[in-house]
């Protein structure tokens, strides 16, 4: 480093030298003071209570929240305008017919010398497939055990063969094999081979009293993660046999196949069966299917979709006070250009409605319930809005795969662990019923939207891909039935 005396711009007058030295010292003093204050502030900030998010582990007390590495403030008021746009239902792309004729048949076919004729025996009339099956299963039948061949076969529109799964005997252990056959759209057939020894590493079998599942969630909570308790209760109520009104008064049990999850994936119920333990009879069952492009869903062993009920039950409510449709506009405000379009001519009003009455669209379902009633997420999703939003009051918006969003409005409070950007599992309590915003009483205003379009989930004409068996899902379902369900004996 050069000496100051050698610098070409050295000051020769002592008075000026002294002034420069004092100035330099003052700058150092101020800088140190600023640094010390910043350090002190950092120390204070570090003493603030930190909210630790619960993530998946082997514990049965998980919350079902996942954090992102970069998170926005918990109460972000920067609204995404697209979340609040009104779009015509005519543009709804999710309103599809689906495979309405889908059905599944299963059983355990008695073994014989003509085992390779199994497709014809279970009702498959596809001759090219029958020849393909004979050629490919020569080694499979060499590994057979027991006196029958468990199978599950799915048919679609016009009795079209959709998938066939077969198991090498009614015994479930490390030697269990399942082969699944699926016709390809481009021609030919796909074979998938699965082994129970591979699945057993992540699955746990649990038996819970049916009475406890229906009436005592605390006992169920001792065995399952908290978010699975709500899901299991909803699931069992749907598959509960209607012709067995006193079934809960027996010793019937709910057999579950559960993946308790970890930090990388959610805990999940993969199979649920209501069983009579005295004779092993299965009264009803349901299976979970993962679907990459849309949220997964539960289906019965006959192929009936159960998801519509999950997507329309975000809480335990007293009644539905208002549904999707037109509601009268109340108040003394005068009409403006923005409200003239809502005026209904007397010739078009319903019988009993006063002529000239103004209406507005009510695009959502109002569930009347006491303030503080827990509100649950209806499906896995990501928090894309959390905060106050005008007429909605306290609002949570969740984004789901496939272009779906769910809205939970008028809340009295939010789950304190919830933040913008969190990934939330179905069944997690996200808030509580309130009467914030434009609300005449305590209730939850719930909306389901597809690509920004309002959907009436209670309309029988609304057949969304969320709750239909689609082409390509068959192979997963027939496989799960044999792999995770109680084997049907001959």
Q: How is this structure best described in words?
A:
The chain is of the alpha+beta class and 490 residues long. The chain is 19% helix and 28% strand. The chain is built from ten helices and 24 strands. The protein has helices at residues 14-46, 118-121, 127-136, 196-199, 210-215, 217-221, 226-239, 307-310, 337-340, 474-484, and strands at residues 65-66, 103-110, 148-155, 161-167, 177-183, 189-195, 204-209, 253-259, 268-276, 281-289, 297-300, 319-322, 325-328, 359-362, 365-368, 374-376, 381-388, 394-400, 404-411, 413-414, 423-424, 429-432, 443-450, 453-455. The strands form five sheets. Strands 1, 12, 15, 17, 18, 19, 21, 23 and 24 form a nine-stranded antiparallel sheet that branches. Strands 2-3-4-5-6 form a five-stranded antiparallel sheet. The radius of gyration is 31 Å and the shape is globular. It starts with 13 loop residues before the first helix and ends in a 6-residue tail after the last helix. Mean pLDDT is 76; it is low at 1-22, 24-62, 69-78, 90-96 and 322-353.
- What's the number of helices? 10
Largest sheet: 9 strands, antiparallel
- The helix fraction, in percent, is 10-25%
Mean pLDDT: 76
Strand content: 25-35%
The assigned structural class equals: alpha+beta
| Principal-axes shape call | globular
**Total number of β-strand segments?**
24
CA-based gyration radius? 31 Å
* End-to-end separation: 95 Å
Low-confidence stretches: 1-22, 24-62, 69-78, 90-96, 322-353
Features:
10 helices; 5-stranded antiparallel sheet; 490 residues; alpha+beta; single chain; disordered N terminus; 28% strand; globular
């Amino acid at each position: 480093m050069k000496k100051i005396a050698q610098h070409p711009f050295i000051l020769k007058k002592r008075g000026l030298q002294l002034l420069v030295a004092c100035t330099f010292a003052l700058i150092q003093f101020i800088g140190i003071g600023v640094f010390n204050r910043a350090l002190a502030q950092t120390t204070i900030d570090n003493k603030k209570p930190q909210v630790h998010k619960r993530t998946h582990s082997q514990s049965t007390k998980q919350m079902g929240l996942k954090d992102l590495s970069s998170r926005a403030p918990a109460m972000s008021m920067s609204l995404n305008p697209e979340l609040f746009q009104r779009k015509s239902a005519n543009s709804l792309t999710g309103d599809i017919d689906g495979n309405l004729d889908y059905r599944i048949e299963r059983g355990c076919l008695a073994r014989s010398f003509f085992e390779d004729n199994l497709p014809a025996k279970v009702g498959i009339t596809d001759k090219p497939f029958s020849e393909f099956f004979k050629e490919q299963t020569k080694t499979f039948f060499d590994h057979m055990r027991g006196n029958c061949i468990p199978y599950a076969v799915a048919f679609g529109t016009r009795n079209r063969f959709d998938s066939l799964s077969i198991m090498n005997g009614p015994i479930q252990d490390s030697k269990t094999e399942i082969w699944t056959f699926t016709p390809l759209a481009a021609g030919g057939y796909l074979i998938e081979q699965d082994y129970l020894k591979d699945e057993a590493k992540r699955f746990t079998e649990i038996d819970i009293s049916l009475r406890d599942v229906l009436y005592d969630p605390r006992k169920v909570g001792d065995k399952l993660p908290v978010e699975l308790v709500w899901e299991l209760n909803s699931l069992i109520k749907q598959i509960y046999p209607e012709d067995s009104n006193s079934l809960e008064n027996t010793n019937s049990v709910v057999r579950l196949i559960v993946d308790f999850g970890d930090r990388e994936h959610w805990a999940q119920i993969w199979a649920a069966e209501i069983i009579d333990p005295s004779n092993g009879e299965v009264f009803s069952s349901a299976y979970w299917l993962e679907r990459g492009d849309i949220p997964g869903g539960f289906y019965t062993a006959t192929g009936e979709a159960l998801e519509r009920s999950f997507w329309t039950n975000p809480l335990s409510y007293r009644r539905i006070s208002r549904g999707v449709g037109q509601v009268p506009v109340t108040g003394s405000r005068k009409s403006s250009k923005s409200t003239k379009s809502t005026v209904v001519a007397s010739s078009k009003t319903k019988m009993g409605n006063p002529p000239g009455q103004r209406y507005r669209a009510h695009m959502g379902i109002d569930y009347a319930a006491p303030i503080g009633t827990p509100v649950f997420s209806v499906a896995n999703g990501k928090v894309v809005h959390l905060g106050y939003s005008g007429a909605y009051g306290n609002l949570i918006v969740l984004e789901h795969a496939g272009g779906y969003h769910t809205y939970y409005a008028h809340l009295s409070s939010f789950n304190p662990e919830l933040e913008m950007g969190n990934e939330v599992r179905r069944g997690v309590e996200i808030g509580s019923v309130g009467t914030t915003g434009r609300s005449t009483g305590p209730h939850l205003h719930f909306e389901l939207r597809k690509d920004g379009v309002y959907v009436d989930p209670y309309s029988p004409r609304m057949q969304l891909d969320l709750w239909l068996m689609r082409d390509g899902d068959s192979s997963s379902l027939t496989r799960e039935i044999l792999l995770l369900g109680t084997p049907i004996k001959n």
